[in-house]
Amino acid sequence: MEDGEIITFGQGASGRLGTGSNKNQKVPAKIGPYGFATKLKTAEGERTAQKRPLEHPSEKTLKKALSSAPGSGKQSWEIACLECGDMFSCAVTWHGALYTWGSGARGQLGTGSLQDSWVPKVVRMPSGRLVKSVACGREHCIAVTYDGNAYAWGKGDKGQLGVGRNEDTATPKAVGITNALCCAAGEDHSGAICRSESENELYMWGASELGKLGLGSAQLSSTDSPPACVRGFGKADCVPISLSCGQYHTAVICARKSDTEGDRTGRVWTFGGGWFGKLGHNDMENQYEPKLIQSLVVRIRSVHCGAYHSCALSYEKGVVNDNGEMAGDLWVWGRNRCICEHENAKVPIKFMQIDGQPKVTCVATSDMTTMLVTSAGLVYAWGDNRNGQIGLEGGKKESPQPEIIGNLPQPPILMCAGPGHMVVYARNKAMLAWGNQSCGRLGLQEKKMEKVLFKPRMVRAEWGSIEAMSGADEEGEAGKKVTAAALATIGEAQEADAGTEGSVDDGDEEDFQSTKENMLYAITSGQKVQRFSTMQTMLREEPESNKISSLHKHEKELKKLVESSVQSLATVPEKERRLSVVLQERVEKGIVYLNNVLQHHVHKDPERDRLDQELMARMPSYEELFTVLQLQISYLASLSMTIKDEAMAEVFVNVVCAIFADLHDSRIRNLFILLLQLMTSKELEQAKHIDDVFQPNSRVFRLFSFFALHRFHFEEVIHPLMDCHKTDEQGQPVTLMGAVTYKTLEKGQTWSLEFGHYLKSPSIAAKLKEQAPQELRADFTKELDMFYDFFKVDVVSSIGRLALAPSFWSFFAFCRDSIKECQLVGGEEDEAGTEVELKIAEPLFRLFLNGIMLPLLRDPKKFGGKEVGLLHCEKNNSDGDVLFNLSTVRDAFEDLTVPGGKKRLGKIRARLKPEILRYLLERSANASNAEDPESAVMVQTLVRHYDREPRSIYVPTSPLVKFQNLLVTNVNKIRQQSGDPLDEVCRKIGLCSEALVKEAIDKAEKGSEVLHRITIQHRFLFTERSMTICQVSRCTVPLQLSAGGGKPSEEGKLSENVDVIRTLKEDNNNKVLEDLFRSLPPLRSSNFLSLKEEFEALLKQCSQNPTLEEMLSQGIQAVGDLIETETSVEEVLEAMAAVILARNRHSRYLQTMLLGLSRLPMERDRHAEAIRRGELELKAVIEHSKTMTVPDRISNVAKLESAILKGNDLPFMLQKQAARERTKTSHKVVRYKLEELLSSGKVLECFSELETVQGKVYLTMWSVDSDVVVHVGLLEEADFMLEFVKQFKIPEDVIKQLPFSDKNDTTGLPLQGPFIMEWRSLELAKLLKEVPPAD
Fold this sequence. Notes:
Keywords: Repeat. It comes from Effrenium voratum. By secondary structure, this protein is an alpha+beta fold. It contains 41 helices and 43 strands. The strands form twelve sheets. Strands 4-5-6-7 form a four-stranded antiparallel sheet, with no helix packed on it. It has a four-stranded antiparallel sheet with strand order 8-9-10-11, with no helix packed on it. Strand 34 and strand 35 form a beta hairpin. Helix 19 (777-800) packs parallel to helix 26 (906-925), helix 20 (806-822) crosses helix 26 (906-925) and helix 28 (957-974) packs across helix 30.
């Protein structure tokens, strides 16, 4: 043609027309500039749909699929689309792979077979096309590919396939449309929205009865209709963007033509059968053409058709849940039983059957069942339950009201419903199904005997297999024939690939890196590599940093870095010594001078000295002892297993908590995690059954509770559970305490597990004055049901929101793996019905409840008040009815920890326990990226040597002497060898006498014992001159504290006595195969015999590549040896996978260490600057001290206080004395008692510790110029101020503005900095007028 374009038509065999298919072309088709056929108009103006193939269909890569996918950046194996048919299910991955399972009787699985499939199988699309979305009808499927083509398969007797023939087909066939955007399928009709040259068009085909195709009454027919364009939207100035097909009706979302391209919302049009009012037009008439639902004026983002009802989700700008998913209102109309109403709804109504009317993120419908997910992540379902699809057991055939679907690990992000089953895909990438499993429609990982399953079970995720992630394709690249020319260039190709490694796009690199990580995670979680080609992919995609040569290189770099760091550290003591010597001299002289001036005022406590004199003499030995125990945690772990007496166990726990009290220090925190891990290992060694692990008397449990509820974790653990004022975007409480408070104070609910106890609650006791107890039994039963609902919804939701720190999940993951290794779990469900995969988390469940939940519930006033930073919650948390309901929640949690438990709480146990078990398993499974405590301790130990601040622990006298005797008595059982550091220090300390122990106990009972400050030596490298990693405790310790013992070489350099870097042993028996697998094209073999033959065939073709020829010869020999020793393929692949994992772990370890040690130069410079500054300041002090005398004001203050003043006491004492001088009653001041101001309502609230001593706190005010000074403090005799708490000014301009405040305005004082009290503004103005003017 003149414009250079080509037009073809005629016979299309062998692709001779270039239209992308082998079909004949009856009308001219123009070949586009890129090889795509484009549509031409015939003389009659009709459009002819041509197939538009991919440029290179064989290039089936993740990059190509995602380049046009709306969710670009998703991992290839994640699910993008999920659909259910009558007795089968479908899933599409972001890679464009389609999987089907279930009934195949009409070919609806698309695999070419009519047999049922009990596991998901991949559907082979023509020319390797990638699927974008799929829709399921009753027994047929429609799929849209990324190139805009549509394919159909399954039942086709009514023309619902749209392929030109009214017959079934078991493989995908092309539908006569092009540029398809999305599709939908009903009972026996189908539809798709296609992109035309200017706008979207809706095509419908199949059975046209009742007008469900929307083609008008003139085209009604019981026979089939081919794909035809539905008209009528253009007149309304709108275009279709989404659709849904029900059994006998269709709903379409149309957007305005003026809307932007990315706007996927609009209004709803419906057509088809109108009985029950399911079309939403305020009648029950059939509608043969699209008609707008006039009453539904809100913007809709999705519409869903059941058999007798319809649902729509509204769009609300900016409303999302905590996972970033859009949330809106659910609108329903149609049959009453399907929408939880008493009457049919002929127009859309807002669904309001769930308490609190939460927003909804997604919804799914089937014939008579509906399922939704709220913004809080809770799943509800209602309607037909004949196949258990709502999860209701006991023969209940339907539910007229929404029921919670329990036992889901995390909230669904995709879900679908069939007439007899449900399938959901959760945030954690797990797919679960339940209902009728006949024909394999559930696709379960483990096939069950029962026909109906009421609880969600895991779907066998074939798309998440290592083969699917690696892209291994049995009929793809692995089947290609390899030529001699290709073999000759293998070495060159690898070099070229290595040279261009850094040129990959950042986004693509992230996608591939994520895929690699998930392949590694799949192996870690127990998946097995099944094909040689998959192993090839894993080896080829292994990062360069994970290869042995790179690992050894990084090991050498790390050792050099450690060596240089240690050499630098060796100079630190001398630098500090010069400064400390001079400083000590000056300090000692100053102390002597002050003692001479002030010592006659010192009073001694002879009673205290008599008790502590002996302990003070042992203080150097105590410091040595606790330094050893903190550095080498294996001593404490061993000691914990020797204690049988419960009283001594309490002493042990208290002292260990004192040793590791400073959890704000990351080194101490990681040491404590290592201690918990070591104690767990020892406890598991003695356990005979999984029920023996982490019982309430377990030392691990008690120390874990200390760790979890420590001040360091208040905001991560306590606040998310106990902050009663925290709400979501709808104002609903999101914490456990908030939910209890809301249900109690707002809803007026009272909970109890026993009727007699119910009558004792404050609110019910008041009713007994007017009603007999038996009259309240009905209320008791009703509110008990409400309590069950509270656990099903609110408790599950609040626990699901709990975001514990990575250190928690790191410890839980260690416990999970250790329990697996000990093989304490059987292979069958227990009596309570707990699934096998969940049993392993039972000890974690006990740890979580006994260590976190129950301590909080047993002391709500402590953990819900100012002591944990929740002062604003104290009022609600102290309410009698709230505390009563909270005690019932506590009783229910306690029952969960008891085997069997109360029968009445069976509902709660069945719902909540599996939920928490899954929560713990899922989160711990994702803890692989958490910081390794062993590596962290090593880095932090080196860094801390630049820290000159002393580290101390504080232990009271009574626990100190008891622990001392416990340790000395058991030292022979816990020492690593005779004469080790612990053995030596125990000999120095010896046993405390019974008299001393008794005296310490008496002092403790009187509350007069001493808190001993014991300094810990954390800079041991300067004294011990060595450092290593203990093979037992995994701690960084001096050589003599390690499990192997030993002493540093005195002749060698300091750096030679430091061995803290792990090395990877080259223990790879399959290195020959590994090198070959990495080099060769995809292999086709599945066993060693065929692999040997394949190697021999390749050897004959590679004469031009001597290197590869040698490798193949060695490979043939290695495979021959494996055949001779009868080694299985599975064993070899498993061993190779283990080596890959070991290299990956070691690479991550080296990277972590290099990153951590990079901090050392910065710490070294900071330390040098501190020394330099200290020397300058000391010189200035020395010069000044030559003429120093004690000022009179200091001497006077010391005499008044009758004490020798410490340096940090001086500012406070001087400030106190100045306060006395300023606030004598002779001055023109006014004084108000804080307690009276609060009771009168002038001061609304205090925000400091003043609240505890309100009766003694006074506000003293006086004028300075035109400002007013406010002094807050405690009074002593003679009206002098005893303690100076706060002093601040109220400026003149603020004083003038206060009288003009509104009635409800408040003012916080002081005006600058944090408030300590909140005033009513007008009351404050009145008081300020009473302040006398300045002289």
